[in-house]
Amino acid sequence: MNTPSLLILAGDGIGPEVMGEVKRIITWYGEKRDMTFDVSEDLIGGVAYDTHGTPLTDETMAKAQEVDAVLLGAVGGPAYDDLDFSVKPERGLLRLRKEMDLFSNLRPAQCFDALADFSSLKQDIVAGLDIMIVRELTSGSYFGEPRGIFDLPNGEREGINTQRYTTREIRRVARSAFELARKRSNKVCSMEKANVMESGILWREEVTWVHENEYPDVELSHMYADNGAMQLVRWPKQFDVIVTDNLFGDILSDCAAMLTGSLGMLPSASLGVPMENGRPKAMYEPVHGSAPDITGQGKANPIACILSFAMALRYSFNDGAEADRLEAAVEKVLADGARTADLLGPEGGSPISTTEMGDAILAALDASL
Ligand code: NAD
């Protein structure tokens, strides 16, 4: 196979700072593991708007379609808050997701032992937690038509969004959840509101169809999404893979992610259909935003972005062993007590900088050889 290609879109705010540490790790893999990537970089978000008058140029979009994986930092910031909706930094991100058809959004919620105290839940509820939420990302009520705000004859206004799913859309995200489960603890819980929504009934029927016909070896359960939210904070370790729609997934994945502590720790992957070389269309990005309040101060935690690269190793480059190595290096530095400012509890302590966290992870990678 050719040298795998990566497009880095560092974006705005702390995006370039955290991505700087990922670039050092990519270099480490080239030098120490003989894993070379063909890396190119481009602009997205506010910085692309400043340079080109658009948050994502057609050229960058075309490049994203060609590479094996896109690594994204973060977009947005107060300087762009008043821009027209059509050129806001977030539009660049949404365009990437939509045009690359990244329908399966993987959001792991994993609690590193060293940070179990950090959760708002009791330690025994979150210690060792390792679940994966698979959220449908390109359909449902965020995209369904009709949508809009309309004037009614009686002088009132009406806001409409449409929750709409097709067989194909449900089956393909269900398959992605079952595939993942096979590589984990072989359990999928599907969440919807089949008790009150027709789209939920269809969701349940189609997930069941995929299960019975293609993945009978995986354990499948169904849960109403509101109960799912309760169960996530009551006893999250009952779950392995959760699959759900765009709207419920937005809420449930944020809820699950925060079980584990800081926003600076949370990676994500968005996957689409396989390309000719068998790799899925893919974009990897930290869950956090551009953090304007700490930009340029060396305070950003690079771990979410680094763990997103670990997901790229696992899901795009099929190298679970190297992904494990990188995740273990992160776990080791945390166990050794390395903390960026966001990882210090109320009792305080002395934080290390973004670059020092990168140094520590590189040293742990060296030690793993
Ligand atoms: P945010 O995630 O940028 O920040 C929320 C809080 O978490 C801030 O206090 C920030 O300092 C802290 N934080 C975030 N990431 C951190 C990290 N890696 N290390 C340490 N602390 C970290 O969310 P926000 O403040 O609501 O949004 C800021 C901007 O980012 C907005 O313009 C928003 O639209 C944009 N945004 C972009 C994305 C994205 O690019 N995917 C996601 C969310 C928000």
Can you walk through the features of this model?
This protein is of the alpha/beta class and 369 residues long. Helix content is 40%, strand content 21%. It is built from twelve helices and twelve strands. The strands form two sheets. The chain has a ten-stranded mixed sheet with strand order 2-1-3-12-11-4-5-10-8-9, sandwiched between helices. Strands 6-7 form a two-stranded antiparallel ribbon. Strand 8, helix 7 and strand 9 form a beta-alpha-beta unit. Helix 10 (303-315) packs antiparallel against helix 11 and helix 11 crosses helix 12. The model has no long low-confidence stretch (mean pLDDT 95). Nicotinamide-adenine-dinucleotide binds at residues 14, 18, 74-77, 90, 93, 263-264, 285, 288-294, 300-301, 304, 342.
Helix share, percent: 40-55%
How many helical stretches?
12
Output the radius of gyration: 21 Å
| Annotated CATH topology of the largest domain | Isopropylmalate Dehydrogenase
Strands of the widest sheet, in order across it, are 2-1-3-12-11-4-5-10-8-9
Quaternary organization: single chain
Mean pLDDT: 95
Order of helices and strands: EHEHHEHEHEEEHEHEHEHEEHHH
What is the overall silhouette? globular
Bound molecules: nicotinamide-adenine-dinucleotide
Strand elements, count? 12
Structural class: alpha/beta
At CATH's second level, what is the architecture of the largest domain? 3-Layer(aba) Sandwich
Largest sheet: 10 strands, mixed
CATH superfamily of the largest domain: Isopropylmalate Dehydrogenase
Strand content: 15-25%
CATH class of the largest domain: Alpha Beta
